[in-house]
Amino acid sequence: MTDTPRPVGATYRVQVRPDFDLDATAGLAGYLADLGVTHLYSAPLLTAAPGSTHGYDVVDHAQVNPQLGGEPARQRLLRALRSVGLGLVVDIVPNHAGVAVPAANPAWWDVLRRGRDSAYADWFDIDWARGRLLLPVLAEDPDALDALTIVDGELRYHEHRFPIADGTGDGSPREVHDRQHYELVCWRRGDAELTYRRFFAVSSLAGLRVEDPAVFAATHELILAWAAAGEIDGIRVDHPDGLRDPAGYLARLRDAAPDTWLIVEKILEYGEELPGWPVDGTTGYDALAAVCGIFVDGDAEADFTALDTRLTGRATSWADLTHDTKLGAATRLLAAELTRLAALAPEVDADAARAALAELAAAFPVYRGYPPDGVRHLANARAEAGRRRTDLTGALDAITRRLRDPDDELARRFPQFTGAVMAKGVEDTAYYRWSRFVALNEVGGSPAHFGTLPGRFHRFAVARHDRWPTSMTTLSTHDTKRGEDVRARLAVLAELPQRWAQLVTGWMAAVPLPDAALAHLLWQTAVGAWPVERERLHAYAEKAAREAAVSTGWTDPDPAFEQAMHALVDAMYDDPAVSGELAAFAAEITPAGWSNSLGQKLIQLAMPGVPDTYQGTELWDNSLVDPDNRRPVDFGVRRELLARLDAGWQPAVDDTGAAKLLVVSRTLRARRDRPELFGDYQPMLVHGPAARHAVVFDRGGAVAVATRLPLRLAAEGGWRDTTLSLPVNQMSCLFTGRVYSDGRVRLADLLATYPVALLVPTT
C-alpha cells in the first residue's frame, strides 16, 4: 500500500548513528510531534563504512545500514512516525562512496579484483589511462610493502584487506601485489597522484559516476522505492556541486520522484542565485547568513579590522587570503585532480596548464558556474587570474577557450574542481586563518560583509517567498563551524569593539602564542561557547590550528607549537590572570547573546521557507565544529521542559534554555496548526526613537518581532515610545499569552518579558 505524501512544513534533523540508531530515533516521534515539526530529517540511512558516525561514506546502496538496525528498524521508525502524524525526509549521498574498508563495499572490492573488466568499473570516476588504481594506505617507509601478507586468499597490510585477482595468487606477497589492478602506495602520495576522483581531498571517499543511467539506477533504487511507496516525503541531496552534471542528475531524480520535496546542499556565495533546477530549494545556508547577519553591528567593522591588523602585525585582505588558500588547495590538496585536468589540455605546456587551471580555480568567485551565470563567472576568473599572473596570458587564453565549450571534457570536469577548491580553500582553511570576527566565518557566509541591515534581509525574504517558498531555512547543521547560539553571543562583541580589543589584547599578552591570528580565533571561540568543557576546547583548538595549516597541520604537526597552543587553552581555565576575567566577561554578555539567539531563531522559524531545527538546538547550544556538534543530545531534559511549558510555566530567559524551547515550539505549532497565517511576507515599519533595533514582518496574519543590537538599545534608553501598528485590532502573543487590542502597541510593553514576540489574530 502506498502512503499519501505529507507536505513538508518543518523538519527536525537527527544525526542517526550507531550509538543513536533507528530505534532510538523512533523513540523521539512523540516529542517531535509535540514540538511542532511535521517531519523527521535523518542523516543517511544506507549502509555506511563500519563504525561510521555520520553515514556519508555509503558502501552499499542496496540496504539499510545494519549498524542502525537495518530494514526492520526502519519499518519500526516509520510506524512510530505515522502513529503521531509525522513524515520522513532522508539524506542521500550521490557524489561519492566509502572505500576506506574495501571489503565493506562490494562494488569497490570487485573493481579492485577485476579492474576494468569489473561490472562496476564504470561506477567510479577512475582514470584508467594512468595505469593501476593507486590506493594510499602504506606507511611512510620505503620497505612498507615488506609487511604484506596473504591470508585466506587476500592481500593483507596490517588491518587492511585487499582482493587478489583470479590467477595472480602465486608467489610472494610482493609479487602478488605487483600483478593486481591496484597498487598500494604511501599515504602521502594520495593528494598528488591518485587516479580516481575523490570527495574533496578525502581519499577514503571515491567519486561516483551517477551521470551514467545504470549507476544512477543502481545507487538510487532503494531510495526511489521508498519514495514511490510514500515512505519518504523529502530527499536532501548531499554536495551536488561534486557531480559531473548536477542539472541532469536533478532532472532525473525529479522525474523519478515527482512528488517528493527535493532540496540540495548547494552553498551560494554572497548575492548568488540558485540555478533554475527542478528542486524545492537549498538546505538553508543562504538563510543562515542573512538571518545571523541581522544581529551583527556593521558599524564595528573598522574597529575589528584595526584590531586584527594590530594583533597580527599586518593588514589582511580577504580577497588575497582566499586566493592564496584556494591556490594552495588546488596545487597541493587537490594536486591529483589538477594533474588529471591538465592532461586534458595537451596543446598547452604541462606546467603552464597546471598553473593556469589552478589560478582560474583560485580566482573563481563561486563554487562552480552554472548557465547562464557561469560564463560571467569564468570571465571574471580569467580577468583576475590574468591580473595576478601576466606570465600565463597564453595558457590562460587557451584554457579559457576550452572552458567556454560546454561539450569539452575539460569544461565538464573543471567545475567539479572549482567546487572542491572553494570548499577546501575557504571553508576548511581561510575560515580558520581569518579571525577578524569569527561570528561571520560560516558556511554560506561572507566574512568580508560585516552584518546584514534589516532592509537587505527583508529584500532577501521577499525574493525567497516569491521564488523559493519551500526552500529550507536553518541556523545550525552538522557542517556549521559554530553552533547558532555561539554565533549569537559572538555577535555581541560587535557592540563592544573597544572593550573586546582591550580584553583580548591583555589576554594575548598574558598568554602569548606565536600565531596571533589563531590566538584571536581561540579567544573569540572560548568567549562564544563559555562555559565549555576543557577537553572540547582542546579538541577544537587542535582541529582549528591544523585546518588553518599555518603553524601546524594534519600531515606534519608541529609538536612544539601545539604544546604552546594547548597551554593557552589550559590557561583559560587555570591562569588567574585571565580565567576569571574571561568567565566574567562571557557571563556579562550572555544575556545579550540570549536575546540575539531568540531573535534569530524566531526569524528563521517564521520567515518564508521550511524551517529545520538541528538536534538539540531547541535549547541553548554551545556546539563547535564537527564532531563536537554531533554530541549526544539529552532528549529527556527537553521532554520535561516542554511538558512544563505546556502546563503553563512561563520561563525566564536564563540558562535553562526553556525560553528558546518556548519560542521554537510555539512558532512551529503555529505554522503547523494555522498555516493560513504564514502565506505572505511583508516587512512592517516600527515608529519611534529605537525603530532600528526592531525587525518586524507580517507573514499574512502572524507578525514576528525581534530585537537587534540589545546592548546599544539599552545604552540609548531602551524602547521608550517606539510603537508598532498591528494589522488587526486584536492580537495575542503566543509566547506570553498577552492580548493587544488597540491596534497599536508599545514595544516596551510587547517585549517586556522576552526580546521577541509572535503575534496572531485572536480567535
Number of helical regions: 27
Radius of gyration: 27 Å
Helical residues, percent: 40-55%
Q: Strand order within the widest sheet? A: 16-15-14-5-2-1-18-17
Percent in strands: 5-15%
Instruction: Profile the largest sheet.
Output: 8 strands, parallel
Q: How far is the first residue's CA from the last residue's CA? A: 39 Å
The number of strands is 27
Structural class: alpha/beta
What's the SSE blueprint?
Elements: E1 11-14, H1 22-26, H2 29-35, E2 39-42, E3 46-48, E4 58-64, H3 70-83, E5 87-92, E6 96-98, H4 106-114, E7 133-138, E8 149-151, E9 154-157, E10 160-162, H5 173-177, E11 182-186, H6 190-193, E12 198-199, E13 202-207, H7 213-228, E14 234-237, H8 246-256, E15 261-264, E16 281-282, H9 285-293, H10 301-312, H11 318-333, H12 335-342, H13 350-363, H14 373-388, H15 393-403, H16 409-433, H17 454-467, E17 472-473, H18 484-493, H19 497-510, H20 516-529, H21 534-548, H22 559-574, H23 579-606, E18 610-614, H24 635-646, H25 658-673, E19 682-683, E20 686-687, E21 694-698, E22 703-707, H26 710-715, E23 723-725, E24 731-733, E25 739-740, E26 744-746, H27 747-750, E27 756-761
Parallel strand pairs: 1-2, 1-18, 2-5, 5-14, 7-11, 14-15, 15-16, 17-18
Antiparallel strand pairs: 3-4, 6-13, 8-9, 9-10, 12-13, 19-21, 20-23, 21-22, 22-27, 23-26, 24-25, 24-27
Describe this structure in words.
InterPro entries: GH, GH13_cat_dom, Maltooligo_trehalose_synth_4, Trehalose_TreY. It comes from Micromonospora gifhornensis. Residues 15-400 form the Glycosyl hydrolase family 13 catalytic domain. This is Malto-oligosyltrehalose synthase. With 763 residues, this protein is an alpha/beta fold. Helices cover 43% and strands 14% of the residues. An 8-stranded parallel beta sheet has the order 16-15-14-5-2-1-18-17. β21 and β22 (703-707) form a beta hairpin. The radius of gyration is 27 Å and the shape is globular. It starts with 10 loop residues before the first strand and ends with a strand. The model has no long low-confidence stretch (mean pLDDT 96).
